[in-house]
Amino acid sequence: MFAPRFVLAAALSAALTAAVSAQSTLRIGLAEDPDILDPTLARTYVGRIVFASLCDKLFDIDENVKVVPQLATGFEVSGDGKEVLIKLRAGVLFHDGEKFDAAAAKFSIERHLTMQGSFRRGDISPIDKVEVVDPLTIKLVLKAPFAPLIAALTDRAGMMVSPKAAAAAGADFGKKPVCAGPYKFVERVAQRHIIVEKFADYWNKANVHIDRIVYSPIEDSTVRLANLRSGNLEIIERMLATDADAVKKDAKLKLASVIELGYQSITINVGNGPRAKTPFGENAKVRQAFELALDRQAIVQVVFNGEFLPGNQWVSPQNPMYQQSVPIPKRDVAAAKKLLTEAGVKTPYVVEMMVPNNPETRQVSEVIQSMVKEAGFEVKIRVTEFATSLNSAEKGDYETYMLAWSGRTDPDGNIYSFQSCKGPLNYGKYCDPETDKLLDQSRTVNDPAARKKVFEEITKRTLANGSILYLYHRKMFFPHTTKLQGFKPMPDGLIRVVGLKL
Fold first, then answer.
1. Do domains 2-54+181-257+476-481 and 263-473 have the same CATH topology?
2. DSSP annotation of 93
3. What b-and-e string marks burial along 51-88, b requiring 16 or more CB atoms within 10 Å of the CB?
4. What's the confidence (pLDDT) of residue 352?
């Protein structure tokens, strides 16, 4: 099966290269095909990689996760924390030639807040209203102080779309997005490619050196790397950790890497429909027994050659908000068996695990399957195409689900939408009013030390009873040809294209 897929990918890439031979073309290999290319409705990590070329945001982050200006030039927060004044960059145009100004920024933010099906609403829900102060200034009036606001605006909630194009396209905007990024949309063929080309009127066009970008979804990481090595791609994302040594020895390639902001985890269905009504979904002791049967360090060592970072929280142990008072639990099979006995569960206890179809995730699930078997669990692995798995998770058609989160600049972005009662990404439907109060409180505290204390209480409650079992944090690998210059790995794992040269 390997040879035909590789030949097909190479043939497609060769055809695309021939078609644009007169232009400089950057070819990027993605691990999946993105979902809808509408920043308000999109969910996937790979979609965010594509948006990095299409849709500029009000703010961005640098290599040290510090906020830097993009379409905004600065901001001021009022003394009571309930008003945020944002200054906008002058001379910016959308891809359709429409002017970016305060009215356009107001439109985009309100669209994120009010559009049916919006996945951004939770990111910026404390915004009560958006006011136009002058053509290049907006004021965000908040319901309450909101510490993560500016960090949220460094991601899709801060992406600006053309009001004219969005109004005309309605729900179909994602089929031909019109933003204010360095590249404009040209074509998409599902499961084959997304093509964008340089926007001649981009506000920072002096730093855009490549004419065209082709994003190619190639799910098989071995095939993805083979295409890079053969010259059919210039850079790929999510290379297997086990390939790191070989890439380092390849004189034609460079290897960049960074520990992700996000996490890799198992989401547990504790309240999402009939499939939650199992001992695993309803009894915390069963879930705790499952965790005690795991050895996170061994998982990282066996599957990833020790390259990744074990973790048990929604931020990595390297993050200032990591709670040292709640360390990674050691494996204890005897204690796990005791908990299952106390829970009245007959062994072997069968539990289904839905696993997105990529080799590393499959291997992790197999290692987990072997580990927990010793404690009395029998894991049935259900390998599922990624987009299909997300739909199944939304519907509650699962018991446990191996799901990655690419991470956000502020820790709030890694927890609120997943563990709050009405969180849009709360696929497990965990709901605890006290946790909700603490989550809301964490959003109003600006002092880092005080905020960390609130996060500590959240950590204790959600790790004991919540719907997410955190496992490890990836080192994100970006192998690329030596011909590609200017690439910097960023903690959010997105490929910034401004400044790149071939």
1. no
2. B
3. bbbbbbbbbbbeeeeebeebbbeebebeeebbbbebbb
4. 98
What's the mean per-residue pLDDT of the chain? 93
* Domains in the chain: boundaries: 2-54+181-257+476-481, 59-165, 263-473
Who has greater pLDDT, 59 or 10?
A: 59
Two structure tokens written together for 233? 């791609």
In this prediction the pTM is 0.78
Q: What is the pLDDT of residues 353-396, one digit of tens each?
A: 999 988 889 999 999 999 999 999 999 999 999 889 999 999 99
With bands split at pLDDT 50, 70 and 90, how would you rate the model's confidence at 22?
low
CATH class of this structure's domain 2-54+181-257+476-481: alpha beta
263-473: what fold? Dipeptide-binding Protein; domain 3 (3.10.105)
With tokens 């199992």, the residue in question is 278
CB half-sphere exposure, 256, CA atoms < 13 A: 20
Which candidate, 194, 191, 154, 158, places its Cα nearest to that of 174?
A: 194
| Bridge partners for 472 per DSSP | 264, 310
Query: Phi first, then psi: what are they for 208, rounded to 5°?
Result: -110, 115
Asked if 355 and 402 touch (Cβ cutoff 8 Å), the reply is yes
The CATH classification number of 59-165 equals 3.90.76.10
Q: Any bridge partners for residue 68, and if so which?
A: 60
